[in-house]
Amino acid sequence: MIGIPRASGDSGQASEVAKHALLASSVGGNLAILTTRTTMIRPRQFFYFRIDLDIFILRNLQANAASGFAVHDDCKLNFLDLKAKRTYRFIVFKVEMDKKEIVVEKLGKPTETYGDFTASLPADECRYAVFDFDFVTEENCQKSKIFFVAWSPDTAKVKSKMIYASSKDRFKRELDGIQVELQATDPSEMDLDVFNSRVH
User: Fold this and answer.
1) Are 127 and 104 in contact (CB under 8 A)?
2) Element (DSSP H or E) covering residue 158
3) pLDDT(60) > 90
């Protein structure tokens, strides 16, 4: 149970407290149970209250995200096709917030390139993806490795970043055969040089 102070002498502070209390009550459904008490808020007390409430909101978002997004069967079936039959060059996965489910957003044909793959990742939204990366070893042997990419651009919404981050490990366990993981917040963190450096 969290006590939400209510300012009796400053309408601006009272309005700010009410706004954050409403936000907290809306996060995670029944996770947040709020009560109020009347007190005088000094600037420093209000500052501490804001920090504590922000932490409370973030923790509830994490708990709600970790509580479970289902994985659509197509995610696993298409991944098996990529791994065993090389039917696809890459797969992009999206978290459907409304359905609370991770689904396949795009399937890359075997003829598609790394450039096609990166173009499939939105500039301001998070995604998961797998990419079948071909490379040549120092012994001049042609090989490939399956990369898992956690794409979380800086411009994405904070709530989306948290949901993707908290669901990542559970989702990866559904995709048996991942060999390399990359976490990228901008294109430079997943360019071809980075891919090559992770396979040699």
Assistant:
1) no
2) helix 158-174
3) no
